[in-house]
Each structure stands twice: as C-alpha cells, then as structure tokens.
Amino acid sequence: MGGSQGVSIRIAKGIYYRVGHFKGYPIEREEKVYVDTGILAVTTKHIYFYGPIKSFRVPYSKIVSFTPYSDGIGIQRDAANAKPQIFVTGDGWFVYNLVVNLAREQLN
Predict the structure, then answer these.
(1) Cα dihedral sign for 97, 103, 105, 108?
(2) How far is C-alpha 67 from the chain's CA centre?
(3) Residue 12: inside a domain, yes or no?
(4) 6 pairs with which residues across the strands?
(5) Staple partner for 74: which of 17, 67, 70, 102, CB 3.0–4.6 Å?
(6) How many domains is the chain built from?
(7) Is residue 75 part of a domain?
(8) What residues make up the domain containing 67?
C-alpha cells in the first residue's frame, strides 16, 4: 500500500515522462497459526513440547515473559526473531501459575 505523486511531461504524442516518487509502507498483521497438537510437559527446569510435527525444549532462563489465557498459556523466548508461542491446555491459569512459580525458583 502507498501513494505516489509527481508530474508527467509530454515528450511526443502518446509518450510521457513521469517525474515523481512513490511512498509505501508495509502492511503488518498478527495471526495465530496452528502448528501441532501434542504433549506439553512442565518440569522444574524446562518446558517441553512433543508433537508429531514439532518438538522442542525451552529452559526457563530463555523465557522473557509468560502470558495467561483462560484456556492456555503464551511464552515469549529470549531470541532476536522469536515469535510468541501459545499453548492451549484447557486450564490456562493453573499452567500459568505453575510455570511462573517454577521459573521464579530458577532465579533463586
């Protein structure tokens, strides 16, 4: 998206030279994208996810924020291009309180 402005100069019949510039801006949008269904495991040191398509482990020391949802939890990793990850668990407040308290224990 964007807009342009400028002046058209006639050179010959049907031939024009356009002087101007175009100013654009990116269209940004956020959307949730389903990635996988699997098992979310919480231990005293890490959060694990295991699914048929994707599996990973995240240490609490690499998580910069937790976001509670009524039916799940969101985490934001400490990385340059990390995107928020949301896990639908069915009982978001329980999982949120569990992982936040376990992460605090790691700091002590």
Answers:
(1) negative
(2) 13
(3) no
(4) 20
(5) 67
(6) 1
(7) yes
(8) 39-107
The DSSP line for the chain is -EEEEEEEEEEETTEEEEEEEEEE--------------EEEE-SSEEEEE-SS-EEEEEGGGEEEEEEETTEEEEEESSTTPPPEEEE-S-HHHHHHHHHHHHHHHH-
* Residue 3 confidence class, pLDDT cut points 50, 70, 90: low
Tell me if 67 sits within 8 A of 88, measured CB to CB: no
Report whether 100 contacts 66 (CB < 8 A).
yes
Residue 3 lies in a domain: no
Is the pLDDT confidence value at 5 over 70?
Answer: no
Please, which pLDDT band fits residue 2 given cuts at 50, 70 and 90?
A: low
pTM for the full predicted model: 0.69
Residue type, 20: G
Rounded to the nearest 5°, which phi and psi values hold at 69? -130, 160
